[in-house]
From TrEMBL:
Keyword list, A-Z: NAD, Oxidoreductase
Family to which this protein belongs: Belongs to the D-isomer specific 2-hydroxyacid dehydrogenase family.
Domain D-isomer specific 2-hydroxyacid dehydrogenase catalytic as annotated: residue spans: 6-313
Protein name: D-3-phosphoglycerate dehydrogenase
Species of the source: Cohaesibacter marisflavi
Domain D-isomer specific 2-hydroxyacid dehydrogenase NAD-binding: 110-286
Lineage: Bacteria, Pseudomonadati, Pseudomonadota, Alphaproteobacteria, Hyphomicrobiales
Entry keyword Nucleotidyltransferase: no
Example of a GO MF term: oxidoreductase activity, acting on the CH-OH group of donors, NAD or NADP as acceptor
Amino acid sequence: MSKTILVTGPDLAPAAQELVQTHGFETVHTPAYAASEVIADFLVKTDAVAVVSRMGRIDANVIASAPSLKVISKHGVGVDNIDLAAAAQKGIPVLKATGANAISVAEHAITLMLTTVKRILPLDSGLRAGKWEKPGFKGVELAGSTLALMGLGAIAQETGKIAKGLGLKLVGYDPFASQDCFDELGVERVDSLTALLAQADILSLHCPLNDQTRQMINEESIRLMPEGSYIVNTARGGLIDEDALLAAVQSGHLAGAGLDTFATEPPAADHPFWQEPRIVSTPHIGGVTHQANARVGCEAVRGIFQILDGEAVAKDRYANWALLVEAGHR
């Protein structure tokens, strides 16, 4: 068996690299955001038995080109860049590093919320341009506002904990979360996206991207939100219809948005968001902290060796468990 793990990205945390070496394996790295054809070529040339998926798409053609591939382990939790069904058909489990980057992403979500609502960037730019904009300025106090959590997974829960400390009221929608999750955090549970949007002074997205959630935030759904509300997205860019979001901000229906993810990554250099100061953007780095990288990297690598060594892996770490069962591989 090959002793190579392919990492689709330029680096891996030192602690994760050490774990790889302890098992007698080595890593080979693709360039950042390599095309699927490039990833497939690396898999063929290295005969890698496992992939740590960071950047770039692992589609059906990539999976078909890798006869020795035994496991794909996501460096994080979002698996919309991996063809789960194609992996399941070949009996390849796809694992997630559930919860490992939750604190860092939650901190970033709160940072985007504060930066957007408090208008930090335009005020900073104005001051640097020689403007003193205190006369006539009217800011917004967040305490007492409602933060609407779309999804109540690990990141949303950490976001909610911080938000409560700021005095925000929490409301949430997640048809898959237990009532205990809502009760423990003190989140009011609603039974539909429509009901969630109606209460959302700030909407924070924390759900996966799939066929059911793609562009769930669109012209129609934004219209259901209160006038002057905000959207924060640290989940997946494809959850939002970007044209509709921009139009809503420009019309004033939305007061602003804080985005760490985009429909296409990296986004175009002339993306229209860059001309709108009420949209605060960062390059999908919410979970990219020293601490989170170490936890996520080690969790991703640890999962690989659990699979290769035939050890049990918690079912909630599988992104394609049901598909594996359906294909007769579990």
